[in-house]
């Protein structure tokens, strides 16, 4: 609830004005049965048409004022809800991008998507509903009770007797709603996750004719969402029939007691008519409150989920650390790291690079190659050891400062639905000449010209590009900023040997002062590096030049033999 209050606080004046207008319009609604009772009991017995017309005109005026004020108040409520949720979505999106990778892993991307969409939508509905009918219903309820008390206190006492019972029921049912809707949102997270997996792998699914299996798996996830939502809605739906039963029983008592009081002359027919109208108003107000409380329970669960993300502590902040003994471009000192803190994904990794040197990293899938790149970009901090960048411990540097110094291409990097030039530029202030130069260095100048130049559009998921073209655009993006450090994570796997060789030649000659880390599966991609790090299950199997490893590293010799077909020379 604190989250909602924080975001609607800037609009309190507008909300207050809307509530005053809503209050005035609701009071006009409450006047209508009272005027009707007065006409029946006081005006009609006079047997004069003029007073009837005057009081009838007053009823029409009250109805018109109520209609106009409700429209104005509802529009103002919608505007407040829209602006509040706009701010919440903006801050939530900004917060997600400030999270450390470990926090994103813990929250999970499907859950973050669900919080950005379903949960914010629930809050939007609740903020609007609370201003529209969440205020109107209590006014009708309390106002109706007060007016009925002035009409006939005996009949009002019947109503007052049943209200505490109804209040207890509403409270008990609503209290159980929050955990139920929290569980429902968690099931929705699983549904989003399944949809993302299925859509992302739709080509593989179709190629292997696994549509039925995917439908069955989706059916199971969808069934759990259905069951959770049905259970929550059934519990919350108990409110309406119980309220109807209690209020209608009260209505029967009112009719019976009212008929008796009319018979003995204690009250008038108009009073009973008005009382029945007010009883209906009170009934509808109570039913409306149950709907509001149901929405409130659902939104409170969503607000808690959003608040959990917004309240996550900042990570990867600068810490006071000692520098290295001598300034090197990059240095790993006995670095150990585990994603889930069970088994090390990297174990005692140590190497150093001078300015302009190139390190090749080679190893099987899952050996920890990309993890080294993630640590170097400070997406994560090591569990043990330290990483130095130009003599400074990475933990003493803000992540933004680190990442500005790097040009990086990760596996399965994203191209956006915009122009080729903007995909290379990606929001940075890079001139058109620099973009074209980067494309040329990345061996992408030819196909870009065929596409229509850097203003040509890239389709969603880069469906109008081949794998090699995508990789060359990603490499151009990394080179365009003239980075001090360069990380290429398996970024040439889709390139033919000729293009790959030309790219490596450009990197060697034109970017000689750029310290580079090349992660690859092919020996040919790292053979010319100053050092080659061979990883096996997160541990160092060898470190040195190609010649050194051919002599001293059996794993490297085996990889070389398998890829080239040549026998290793010793």
What report would you give on this structure?
The chain is α/β, with parallel strands linked by helices and 570 residues long. It folds into 2 domains: 2-180 and 235-310, ABC transporter transmembrane region fold (Up-down Bundle); 330-531, P-loop containing nucleotide triphosphate hydrolases (Rossmann fold), CATH 3.40.50.300. Helix content is 66%, strand content 10%. It has helices at residues 2-8, 12-43, 49-98, 101-107, 109-151, 153-200, 202-207, 211-237, 239-263, 269-310, 369-376, 399-404, 420-425, 432-441, 445-451, 467-480, 497-510, 523-526, 546-552, 554-564, and strands at 330-337, 346-353, 358-363, 384-389, 392-393, 406-409, 485-489, 515-520, 531-536, 539-544. It has a 6-stranded mixed beta sheet, sandwiched between helices. A hairpin with a 2-residue loop joins strand 9 and strand 10 (539-544). Helix 5 (109-151) packs antiparallel against helix 10 (269-310) and helix 14 crosses helix 16. It is elongated.
Provide a quick synopsis of the model:
66% of the residues lie in helices and 10% in strands.
List the main descriptive attributes of the protein structure presented here.
2 domains; about 575 residues; alpha/beta; elongated; 20 helices; single chain; 10 strands; 4-stranded antiparallel sheet; about 65% helix
Total count of strands: 10
Strand order of the largest sheet: 6-7-8-3-9-10
For this structure, what is the CATH homologous superfamily of the largest domain? ABC transporter type 1, transmembrane domain
CATH architecture annotation of the largest domain: Up-down Bundle
**CATH topology-level fold name of the largest domain:** ABC transporter transmembrane region fold
How many domains make up the 3D coordinates?
2
Shape descriptor = elongated
Query: What kind of oligomer do you see?
Result: single chain
| SSE run | HHHHHHHHHHEEEHEEHEHHHHEHEHEEHH
Largest sheet: 6 strands, mixed
Mean pLDDT: 84
